[in-house]
User: Fold this.
Amino acid sequence: MRRPATRLLHVLLSVPVVIALVIAASPNAHAQDAPVPMVVVIDPGHGGAVNPAQPDMPFDPGAIAPSNGLEEKDATLAVSLRLRALLEQDDINAILTRSTDIPLSVQQRSDTANNNTASVFVSVHFNSFTDGGPNGSLVLYPKDSDLAFAKTMSDAMFTYLGPLGVANDGVTLRDNWWIHTQMPTVTVEPAFLSNAREAALIATPGFQQLLAMSIRAGIERYDPQLLQRKAAIVAWNTAHPDRPVTAPSTVIPRTTAPAASGWLGTVVRDALILCLLVVVVRRPLASWRAVRAIAAALPMTLDRVLIHRAARRRRRRALAMRADAARAQRFARPHHVYDELY
Ligand SMILES: [Zn+2]
Assistant:
């Protein structure tokens, strides 16, 4: 009969070895060289509907076309959803600030771009004027450093929209907008909802698709890395059909700690595996006991993990409710957050 202290030592020694084995066996262990899809954040302007049950909730339709009643928030979302699908076809992780009809503050939209370290940020709007005369496509940029992006976007959009008779209104500095995004940023205003002809165009799925294509062209022309990364992903997927990289699912959530990488991680992992082999070969009986001890301890550990997780969930829910209340208060104003854009 072995002494309890020796047995405990064996158990303790086995824990890192078992962890190393799990890491080595996981499908991501060798995926460190896989290309990671680049992130583009698209911001469908405005959002939120009137809810009689919640009269304090903010709503922001944006401009409303006098000729056909089309609301800007719906048109921006429709184009952005199409744009996301197009970007995903190019293995880009396209993140929308909203994919449903909800209100968002400027801060929340900027945070989505910054927190996801987007390579570029595009806010989608439509223009409007007090009379139906003005028309055409305009690109706004917040900083001098964004001028090149704005010009590339404006040219790309005109390539698609020009043949449909949408004039090119060029680019305009709007330095009170999106000043806190940390990547190249533009706001596109591809046509006027106040212009009856353009409002009729904006309402059609064909024109919405064309707009999405024109914005994708602007993004990809400005940042050639996006298509270079696509080529790298296609090459990787051809070489590793068992472990393909797909755009939306491969993105690491912000809260996840990065896995051990580089040569040090490999050396540590291999050393641990070697230790395990030595232990198993030299002390087969002790190893078997250690495995049994760990297996016996697992249910207890799982219980604890589950209890902690439930408590964390409750805490998170309380925090979210508090944040919602604060947001509702902030938005409870008669005008919407995009008033300045008109
Ligand atoms: Zn707008």
